[in-house]
Amino acid sequence: MAFEEIERRGLVLLGCGRMGSAMLEGWLSRGLPAAAVQVQDPGLPEALQQRLAAQGVRLNAALPAAPAVVLIAVKPQALPDALPHLAPLGGGDTLFLSVAAGATIGYYQQTLGAGT
Fold it and tell me: Quick one: 103 exposed, middle or buried, by C-beta within 10 A (0-12, 13-18, 19+)?
């Protein structure tokens, strides 16, 4: 997927803990516009919220209709609560990536739709 497509359609980051925030900082430092990123994580520490908002990252906003990429970076035990919120994005041409350990592709397809 071309970088321009991510800039145009956006990237949703589900979970911004150690792994998610490290990846996000890397993308931003390499030129991904902060406005192209939306973080979905209701448990963000206040200091991180302020820093990301100051950079222009959208926090816990309504999901875009068809982001280019959704990166799932929540702890495995959070998947049952967090993943269903992404179900409206499944089945289209959004690329889903996960760094959450232990969940099978079948689990993602069951939760997000078979075409995901």
Answer: middle
